[in-house]
Protein backbone atom coordinates (compact mmCIF):
# COMPACT_ATOMS: atom_id res chain seq x y z
CA UNK A 1 0.00 0.00 0.00
CA UNK A 2 1.70 3.17 -1.21
CA UNK A 3 1.49 6.41 0.77
CA UNK A 4 0.60 8.33 -2.40
CA UNK A 5 -2.38 7.02 -4.36
CA UNK A 6 -2.37 6.77 -8.16
CA UNK A 7 -4.74 4.97 -10.51
CA UNK A 8 -3.10 1.69 -11.59
CA UNK A 9 -3.79 2.32 -15.26
CA UNK A 10 -4.64 4.98 -17.81
CA UNK A 11 -5.00 4.94 -21.57
CA UNK A 12 -5.50 7.14 -24.56
CA UNK A 13 -5.19 7.26 -28.31
CA UNK A 14 -2.47 9.14 -30.19
CA UNK A 15 -3.03 12.88 -30.05
CA UNK A 16 -5.30 12.74 -27.03
CA UNK A 17 -4.74 14.39 -23.65
CA UNK A 18 -4.39 12.12 -20.64
CA UNK A 19 -4.27 13.05 -16.96
CA UNK A 20 -2.84 10.98 -14.11
CA UNK A 21 -3.74 11.85 -10.53
CA UNK A 22 -1.74 11.51 -7.33
CA UNK A 23 -3.40 11.83 -3.95
CA UNK A 24 -1.55 12.31 -0.68
CA UNK A 25 -1.94 14.00 2.68
CA UNK A 26 -0.99 17.09 4.63
CA UNK A 27 2.35 15.56 5.62
CA UNK A 28 3.54 15.07 2.04
CA UNK A 29 1.83 16.70 -0.96
CA UNK A 30 0.01 19.19 1.23
CA UNK A 31 3.29 20.61 2.53
CA UNK A 32 5.99 19.70 0.02
CA UNK A 33 6.60 19.77 -3.72
CA UNK A 34 5.69 16.91 -6.04
CA UNK A 35 7.89 15.24 -8.62
CA UNK A 36 6.93 12.91 -11.44
CA UNK A 37 9.01 10.14 -13.01
CA UNK A 38 8.61 8.21 -16.23
CA UNK A 39 9.82 4.63 -16.39
CA UNK A 40 9.99 3.05 -19.81
CA UNK A 41 9.90 -0.77 -19.96
CA UNK A 42 13.15 -2.25 -18.68
CA UNK A 43 14.68 1.14 -17.92
CA UNK A 44 15.48 3.23 -14.86
CA UNK A 45 13.09 6.00 -13.86
CA UNK A 46 13.59 9.41 -15.46
CA UNK A 47 12.73 12.75 -13.90
CA UNK A 48 9.80 14.32 -15.74
CA UNK A 49 8.45 17.10 -13.50
CA UNK A 50 9.89 18.79 -10.40
CA UNK A 51 8.62 21.49 -8.03
CA UNK A 52 5.04 20.49 -8.97
CA UNK A 53 5.08 21.95 -12.46
CA UNK A 54 8.64 22.49 -13.71
CA UNK A 55 10.19 20.52 -16.53
CA UNK A 56 13.90 19.64 -16.70
CA UNK A 57 15.68 20.55 -19.88
CA UNK A 58 14.85 18.05 -22.61
CA UNK A 59 11.39 17.08 -21.39
CA UNK A 60 8.80 17.99 -24.03
CA UNK A 61 6.27 20.66 -23.12
CA UNK A 62 3.55 18.09 -23.81
CA UNK A 63 4.14 17.05 -20.20
CA UNK A 64 2.79 19.32 -17.49
CA UNK A 65 2.22 19.07 -13.77
CA UNK A 66 -0.02 20.76 -11.26
CA UNK A 67 -0.79 20.61 -7.54
CA UNK A 68 -3.76 21.63 -5.45
CA UNK A 69 -4.02 20.95 -1.74
CA UNK A 70 -3.07 17.35 -1.09
CA UNK A 71 -3.37 16.20 -4.71
CA UNK A 72 -1.29 16.53 -7.83
CA UNK A 73 -1.75 15.72 -11.50
CA UNK A 74 0.39 14.93 -14.51
CA UNK A 75 -1.06 15.80 -17.89
CA UNK A 76 0.24 14.52 -21.21
CA UNK A 77 -1.10 16.24 -24.29
CA UNK A 78 -0.64 15.17 -27.89
CA UNK A 79 -0.16 11.58 -26.73
CA UNK A 80 2.47 9.62 -28.63
CA UNK A 81 3.23 5.91 -28.75
CA UNK A 82 6.58 6.48 -27.04
CA UNK A 83 4.74 7.83 -24.00
CA UNK A 84 3.65 4.31 -23.12
CA UNK A 85 5.34 3.79 -19.77
CA UNK A 86 4.84 3.69 -16.02
CA UNK A 87 4.49 7.05 -14.27
CA UNK A 88 5.22 7.67 -10.60
CA UNK A 89 4.61 10.65 -8.37
CA UNK A 90 6.79 11.31 -5.33
CA UNK A 91 7.09 13.76 -2.46
CA UNK A 92 8.96 14.38 0.74
CA UNK A 93 6.95 13.29 3.76
CA UNK A 94 7.33 15.14 7.05
CA UNK A 95 6.63 12.01 9.08
CA UNK A 96 9.67 10.24 10.50
CA UNK A 97 8.80 6.78 9.18
CA UNK A 98 9.58 7.43 5.52
CA UNK A 99 11.07 10.74 4.41
CA UNK A 100 10.43 10.03 0.74
CA UNK A 101 7.26 8.45 -0.55
CA UNK A 102 6.19 7.30 -4.00
CA UNK A 103 2.86 6.59 -5.58
CA UNK A 104 2.11 3.04 -6.65
CA UNK A 105 2.57 3.96 -10.29
CA UNK A 106 0.24 4.31 -13.26
CA UNK A 107 0.72 2.22 -16.37
CA UNK A 108 -0.12 4.35 -19.39
CA UNK A 109 -1.20 2.49 -22.51
CA UNK A 110 -1.35 4.22 -25.88
CA UNK A 111 -4.11 2.49 -27.81
CA UNK B 1 28.94 12.58 -19.01
CA UNK B 2 26.83 12.75 -15.88
CA UNK B 3 26.03 9.22 -14.78
CA UNK B 4 25.64 6.72 -11.98
CA UNK B 5 26.60 3.08 -12.44
CA UNK B 6 25.12 0.52 -10.07
CA UNK B 7 26.80 -2.82 -9.42
CA UNK B 8 27.08 -5.64 -6.92
CA UNK B 9 23.75 -7.37 -7.26
CA UNK B 10 23.33 -11.11 -7.36
CA UNK B 11 21.75 -14.18 -5.79
CA UNK B 12 21.98 -14.55 -2.03
CA UNK B 13 20.31 -16.86 0.47
CA UNK B 14 17.89 -15.58 3.09
CA UNK B 15 19.84 -14.27 6.06
CA UNK B 16 22.83 -13.48 3.88
CA UNK B 17 24.56 -10.22 3.03
CA UNK B 18 25.35 -8.24 -0.10
CA UNK B 19 27.02 -4.89 -0.76
CA UNK B 20 25.95 -2.73 -3.67
CA UNK B 21 28.03 0.03 -5.20
CA UNK B 22 27.10 3.20 -7.05
CA UNK B 23 29.90 4.87 -9.00
CA UNK B 24 29.38 8.49 -9.97
CA UNK B 25 30.94 10.58 -12.70
CA UNK B 26 30.39 13.93 -14.36
CA UNK B 27 29.32 15.91 -11.28
CA UNK B 28 30.60 16.97 -7.87
CA UNK B 29 29.86 13.79 -5.96
CA UNK B 30 31.10 15.06 -2.60
CA UNK B 31 28.35 17.65 -2.37
CA UNK B 32 25.52 15.35 -3.41
CA UNK B 33 22.93 13.59 -1.31
CA UNK B 34 22.75 10.00 -2.54
CA UNK B 35 19.69 7.80 -2.23
CA UNK B 36 18.78 4.19 -2.88
CA UNK B 37 15.40 3.22 -4.31
CA UNK B 38 14.27 -0.34 -5.00
CA UNK B 39 11.63 -1.99 -7.13
CA UNK B 40 10.27 -5.49 -6.74
CA UNK B 41 9.40 -7.25 -9.97
CA UNK B 42 6.21 -5.80 -11.42
CA UNK B 43 5.84 -3.44 -8.47
CA UNK B 44 6.32 0.24 -7.76
CA UNK B 45 9.25 2.25 -6.48
CA UNK B 46 10.19 2.13 -2.80
CA UNK B 47 12.60 4.56 -1.15
CA UNK B 48 15.26 2.64 0.79
CA UNK B 49 17.46 5.28 2.35
CA UNK B 50 19.93 8.10 1.85
CA UNK B 51 23.26 9.55 2.89
CA UNK B 52 23.91 13.26 2.89
CA UNK B 53 27.14 15.07 2.18
CA UNK B 54 30.06 15.77 4.48
CA UNK B 55 28.68 19.27 5.01
CA UNK B 56 25.60 17.59 6.47
CA UNK B 57 27.68 15.21 8.59
CA UNK B 58 27.06 12.24 6.31
CA UNK B 59 23.63 11.92 7.93
CA UNK B 60 21.70 8.80 6.97
CA UNK B 61 18.05 7.79 7.08
CA UNK B 62 16.30 4.55 6.21
CA UNK B 63 12.87 3.19 5.41
CA UNK B 64 11.29 1.29 8.28
CA UNK B 65 11.39 -1.93 6.24
CA UNK B 66 15.20 -1.97 6.13
CA UNK B 67 16.20 -0.01 9.22
CA UNK B 68 18.70 -1.94 11.34
CA UNK B 69 19.58 -4.28 8.46
CA UNK B 70 20.83 -1.95 5.71
CA UNK B 71 23.62 0.62 5.96
CA UNK B 72 24.46 3.33 3.44
CA UNK B 73 27.96 4.73 3.24
CA UNK B 74 30.07 6.71 0.80
CA UNK B 75 33.66 7.26 -0.25
CA UNK B 76 33.95 10.74 -1.69
CA UNK B 77 37.52 10.11 -2.86
CA UNK B 78 36.24 7.20 -4.97
CA UNK B 79 33.00 9.02 -5.92
CA UNK B 80 31.09 5.94 -4.83
CA UNK B 81 28.11 5.26 -2.60
CA UNK B 82 27.42 1.89 -1.04
CA UNK B 83 24.45 -0.07 0.26
CA UNK B 84 25.38 -2.80 2.70
CA UNK B 85 22.49 -5.23 3.07
CA UNK B 86 22.49 -7.73 5.95
CA UNK B 87 19.95 -10.25 7.21
CA UNK B 88 18.38 -10.30 3.78
CA UNK B 89 14.80 -11.48 3.37
CA UNK B 90 12.99 -12.81 0.32
CA UNK B 91 10.96 -9.60 0.23
CA UNK B 92 14.18 -7.63 -0.36
CA UNK B 93 14.32 -9.12 -3.87
CA UNK B 94 14.23 -6.52 -6.60
CA UNK B 95 16.14 -4.01 -8.66
CA UNK B 96 18.08 -1.48 -6.63
CA UNK B 97 18.75 1.97 -8.06
CA UNK B 98 21.00 4.66 -6.69
CA UNK B 99 19.93 8.18 -7.44
CA UNK B 100 21.06 11.73 -6.74
CA UNK B 101 18.77 14.14 -4.97
CA UNK B 102 19.15 17.56 -6.55
CA UNK B 103 18.48 19.74 -3.53
CA UNK B 104 17.45 22.82 -5.48
CA UNK B 105 14.71 20.87 -7.21
CA UNK B 106 13.96 18.47 -4.38
CA UNK B 107 13.98 15.78 -7.04
CA UNK B 108 15.89 12.65 -8.03
CA UNK B 109 17.51 13.92 -11.20
CA UNK B 110 20.13 11.26 -11.99
CA UNK B 111 19.54 7.51 -11.75
CA UNK B 112 21.77 4.49 -12.05
CA UNK B 113 20.78 1.69 -14.37
CA UNK B 114 19.90 -0.53 -11.43
CA UNK B 115 21.30 -3.80 -10.13
CA UNK B 116 19.23 -6.93 -9.47
CA UNK B 117 19.20 -8.53 -6.04
CA UNK B 118 17.59 -11.94 -5.64
CA UNK B 119 17.12 -13.39 -2.17
CA UNK B 120 16.23 -17.04 -2.48
CA UNK B 121 17.23 -20.43 -1.14
Which keywords apply here?
heterodimer; A: 111 residues; mainly beta; 0% helix; 43% strand; B: 121 residues; 4-stranded antiparallel beta sheet
Helix percentage range of chain B: under 10%
End-to-end C-alpha gap of chain B: 39 Å
The run of helices and strands of chain A is EEEEEEEEE
Tell me the β content of chain B: over 45%
**Bulk shape of chain A:** globular
Q: Could you name the ranges of chain B where pLDDT drops below 50 across 5 or more consecutive residues?
A: none
Largest interface: A-B, 26 and 22 residues
How would you classify the helix and strand content of chain A by structural class? mainly beta
Average the pLDDT over all residues of chain A and give the rounded result. 95
Rg of chain A: 13 Å
Main β-sheet description of chain B: 7 strands, mixed
Q: Would you report the number of β strands of chain B?
A: 11
The number of helical elements of chain A comes to 0
How would you describe the shape of chain B?
globular
Q: Helix count of chain B?
A: 0
What portion of the residues of chain A fall into strands of 2 or more residues?
35-45%
Low-confidence stretches of chain A: none
Oligomer: heterodimer
Largest sheet of chain A: 6 strands, mixed
Radius of gyration of chain B: 14 Å
Amino acid sequence: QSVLTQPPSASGTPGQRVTISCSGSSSNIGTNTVTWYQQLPGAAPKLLIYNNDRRPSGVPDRFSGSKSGTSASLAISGLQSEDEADYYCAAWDDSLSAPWVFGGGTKLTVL
Amino acid sequence: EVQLVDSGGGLVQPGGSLKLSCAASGFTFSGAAMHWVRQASGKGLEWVGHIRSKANNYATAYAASVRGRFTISRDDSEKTAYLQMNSLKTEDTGVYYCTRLWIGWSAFDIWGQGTMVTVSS
